[in-house]
Amino acid sequence: MLLAYYRDSMVCTVGASLMSNFNRDKALPPLESKEALTWMLEQDPENERTLGAEINSIASLIKLGILNQRRNLILLVSDTPGGEMVGKVLKEYFELHPEVGFEKVEVRTVEDLDDSRINDFKSKGLRNLVRELGRCIKEYQNRLVINATGGFKAQIAFALALGQAVGIPVYYRFEKFPKIIELPPLPLSLDIKLWEENMDLFSLLYMFGEVEEDEIEEMTGESFAQLDPKIKMLLDREHIDGKNYISLNPMGEVFVNAMEISIDLSDIELKESDVPIEKRFIYRKPEHSEQFIAKYKAFIEKIYSQPFVRKLIVTGFSQHFDRTIALFKKRGSEIFGSIGAKGGTLKVKVETTASNDLEIRVAVWKLNQLNM
After folding, report:
1. Residues with pLDDT less than 50, the chain
2. Which of 125, 164, 278, 298 might form a disulfide with 121, Cβ 3.0–4.6 angstroms?
3. Smallest Cα–Cα separation from 163: which of 180, 181, 196, 188?
4. 276: which residues sit within 8 A by CB, 6+ positions away?
5. Is 300 helix (H, G, I), strand (E, B) or coil?
6. Residue pLDDT, tens place only, 169-190
7. Contact present, 219 and 204 (Cβ < 8 Å)
8. What are phi and psi of 221, to 5 degrees?
9. Can you give the residue ranges of every domain in the chain?
10. Which is it for the CA torsion 13, 18, 20, 21, positive or negative?
11. What is the pLDDT of residues 251-294, one digit of tens each?
């Protein structure tokens, strides 16, 4: 778990209260104007409600001394024209304000976080919000606090779940409260065994979003109905164009992000291979594969040059491919992969130095971090 020490960075969810307040008060200049920014900078940032939930809550958090220094502010805005406009105004405000400003202010748009597109909001937007929060936590770690005051109410639960799962404090200012408060803990625990036993499945869904149910069944050896209920509660199943697709739901995103932050797989050392690099690639020339291997030689070399890889064995080739992807999976005590790109799909088997089940899963995770 991450420990609370020196805090100098904040990620803040952003809503539309500032824009709504300006639209409602006809005496105020247009929100995007210089006159509006000048007026905003002259007001009490903690108590002038027209300034909106984000400014009021951030000012309260700063007044309480929760931050040791004001270095980084990340504003997570919705995927809407209004979100873009509010993010731009808030960025200028926090770059200029002498008392509540930050050295660096960044606006990040959360893709598909748009409540006018209900299905995208539910299946993608909230999931992407968790992912952005996870990126912030990985970047700033125990220097970070989360302010979940602004934006959609559904965001609070997921921000709270992720923050508390990894030891990052989450703050919220209720509308009638005179100051911001730290939200109390949820009865949430992380199932490490569930993560370790299904790491390749979670990694696949995290990397590619929606995956065909047939591919999930091939990986797990079970139908969706047969999956562990603990896994299914973290997944969404959607029927699109005659096919079933599986994806992480927002709580699934919380689980995967929390596990990756809490258990840094990159720190788990695998024994170095004793096989010389030039002898690791085993290739028996499957039909029509020569051009493909030549074209993607650099990436193939990247795979078998990993310190823990003993052999990369080509097992087959198909001229069909669905998407550019290199995907590795654990099957029993062995690792198999497919490298798909324009020109076909190369099937491979990877022999590594991994000596137990966890090490095999770590090897799969490391291989899946490689980019084509």
Report:
1. 1-4
2. 125
3. 188
4. none
5. helix
6. 999 998 888 899 998 766 666 7
7. yes
8. 75, 10
9. 9-182, 189-263, 269-372
10. positive
11. 888 888 888 877 767 778 899 999 999 999 998 766 678 889 98
Residue 7 to residues 73, 170, 214, 313, Cα–Cα distance (Å) = 12, 13, 46, 48
Q: For the chain, give me the number of helices (H) and strands (E)?
A: 15, 14
SS3 48: coil
Residue 249 identity: N
Angle between helices 154-165 and 250-262 (to 10 degrees): 20
Which tokens hold the place of 178? Answer: 């005179």
Six token digits for residue 174:
């209720």
CA–CA gap between residue 103 and residue 94 (Å, rounded) = 9
CATH architecture of 9-182: 3-Layer(aba) Sandwich (3.40)
Q: Which pTM value belongs to this model? A: 0.70
Cα–Cα dist 216/204, whole Å: 9
Sign for the CA dihedral angle at 280, 354, 332, 190 comes to negative
Q: What is the 3-state secondary structure (H, E, C) of 110-123?
A: CCCCCCCCHHHHHH
Strands 144-147 and 211-212: unpaired
Measured CA to CA, the distance from residue 360 to residue 290 in angstroms comes to: 29
Give 315's DSSP letter: E
Q: Name the class of domain 189-263.
A: mainly alpha
Query: pLDDT tens, 31-53?
Result: 999 999 999 999 999 999 999 99
The amino acid sitting at 42 is: E
Token reading at 65:
């001394």
**CB proximity list for 354: less than 8 A, separation 6 or greater:** 270, 308, 360, 362, 363
Q: Rounded to the nearest 10 degrees, how much is the dihedral formed by the CA atoms of 276, 282, 288, 291?
A: 0
